[in-house]
Amino acid sequence: MMKPLVILSIVLVHSYGECEYDSRYIGWKVFRCDQITPEESEFNKLHGKEKPLNFTRLYWENFTGELDPNTLKVLPNLSTFELKNSNFSTIPDGFFEACQDLEDIELRNNNNLKTIEENAFKNLTKLRNLFIINNSILEDFYLEFVSHCDQMENLGLPSDVVLSMDIPQLKEWFPKLYSISIVIYVEMEDSEKIMKKIEDVINQTELKIYFRDLNDCCSFINSYPE
Ligand SMILES: *[C@@H]1O[C@H](CO)[C@@H](O)[C@H](O)[C@H]1NC(C)=O
Ligand SMILES: *[C@@H]1O[C@H](CO)[C@@H](O)[C@H](O)[C@H]1NC(C)=O
Ligand SMILES: *[C@@H]1O[C@H](CO)[C@@H](O)[C@H](O)[C@H]1NC(C)=O
Ligand SMILES: *[C@@H]1O[C@H](CO)[C@@H](O)[C@H](O)[C@H]1NC(C)=O
Ligand SMILES: *[C@@H]1O[C@H](CO)[C@@H](O)[C@H](O)[C@H]1NC(C)=O
Ligand SMILES: *[C@@H]1O[C@H](CO)[C@@H](O)[C@H](O)[C@H]1NC(C)=O
Ligand SMILES: *[C@@H]1O[C@H](CO)[C@@H](O)[C@H](O)[C@H]1NC(C)=O
């Protein structure tokens, strides 16, 4: 009696998007979601909604809805979260709260993302890599929101966040910080100010600052294992 369900889920892939286990990543438990939330997936329904899913990485794309603070409750074991090319406007308070093992977060190419709420990153004490890149209208994100993440090693930041960065505070909040990545465009209005700021940061810290090409800015998070 399983067959009709399987056929149904194939139909859903084409019409409404779906989530699937991506077995190409040997040794990682990767869940890949297209258009829908992990909760809405056929996979979750078949698995039994009351049991959490045992994936450690979520690669999520093309989601057209808004994010609900409960969305990630179904994935308590995530260590990597990636959300790209999606249309939500806000990351709500407590969004990552159920995922206390998160080490990597990448938010990228989200054209409608305007606000990250102050307590969105609450409870993330293991966070090591945070990339917030190419979200064209993002206004409300401040480093204070992750100041409790004292294991932070690599940050990818919007240029306005780099500009307003307080260097002594940076060292205090993130004693293990290793690099900051920033994507700047030659024609950007503030590019001179940004270059000056970067020089200050380099002079006053041991940090490397990478100027990344958008196409490979964050690849170390999701590249295939060697
Ligand atoms: C998201 O949409 C693009 C364009 O339609 C597609 O190439 C990509 O595979 C989709 N992402 C996922 C995870 O299915
Ligand atoms: C979850 O995955 C881990 C690592 O693959 C495994 O050791 C563990 O038994 C799994 N737990 C459940 C409840 O499936
Ligand atoms: C994206 O969200 C906006 C509202 O915030 C809406 O007007 C627009 O239609 C959405 N686009 C897609 C592709 O869902
Ligand atoms: C998954 O997360 C749950 C809840 O945080 C925890 O009890 C369990 O040990 C975790 N499993 C693995 C394999 O890490
Ligand atoms: C930046 O994001 C926009 C949409 O949000 C996308 O169209 C564009 O391809 C992205 N740029 C790169 C280099 O990824
Ligand atoms: C988040 O952290 C607070 C205190 O820092 C704690 O009281 C709360 O239980 C944590 N939330 C979860 C879901 O563990
Ligand atoms: C940074 O250090 C270099 C060499 O020590 C110096 O030439 C430069 O003026 C300094 N820049 C700033 C902004 O302090």
UniProtKB/TrEMBL annotation:
Transmembrane segments: none annotated. InterPro entries: Leu-rich_rpt, LRR_dom_sf, LRR_TM_domain-containing. One of its GO terms (cellular component) is plasma membrane. Residues 1-17 form the signal peptide. Keywords: Leucine-rich repeat, Repeat, Signal. This is Uncharacterized protein.
